[in-house]
Amino acid sequence: MEDIAKLVAEFGFPVVMAVGMGYFIYYIWAFINNSIQPELDAMHLALIKCIDQNRMLDNDMIRLQQKVNVVLEYREKDKIQEEIEQKAEEIISKEKADQLFAEHSSLSGKNEYEDKKSN
């Protein structure tokens, strides 16, 4: 403490404080360069890696969504195709039934089928 008082008495308070502030700034600069900067560099690399992985996952999600959309489209087409086939089978079975009924009524001599059809 006496040393500081002697320095203040000899050089003045502002000069001693300027030298003290210079040492403080040097100490902080050295601490940042030696301790914090390497950690920041490592964090920067980890951040870049994380961003790249996030982009890859985003691309994967886009591709997966496209595949799901295609599968849903195929299912919809299959459903429509099945409905068309069922309607076609119903139409064919009705035509066969009408044809059998017409044959049966023509064999019996009665034409009830055509009477019903005209009504």
Q: What summary fits the major beta sheet? A: none
The strand count comes to 0
Helix vs. strand class: mainly alpha
Fraction in beta strands: under 5%
C-alpha end-to-end distance: 124 Å
Low-confidence stretches: none
Sum up the overall morphology in one term: rod-shaped
Taking all Cα atoms into account, the compactness measure Rg is 47 Å
Number of helices: 3
Which sequence of SSEs, written as H and E, runs from N to C? HHH
Provide the number of structural domains.
1
The average pLDDT score comes to: 88
Amount of helix? over 70%
Structural description of this entry:
- 95% of the residues lie in helices and 0% in strands.
- By secondary structure, the protein is mainly alpha-helical.
- It has one domain (2-118).
- The protein is rod-shaped.
- The chain starts with a helix and ends with a helix.
- The model has no long low-confidence stretch (mean pLDDT 88).
In short:
The protein has 119 residues and is mostly helical.
List the helices and strands and how they pair.
Blueprint: H1 2-11, H2 13-108, H3 112-118
Helix pairs in contact: 1-2
Keywords:
single chain; 119 residues; mainly alpha; 95% helix
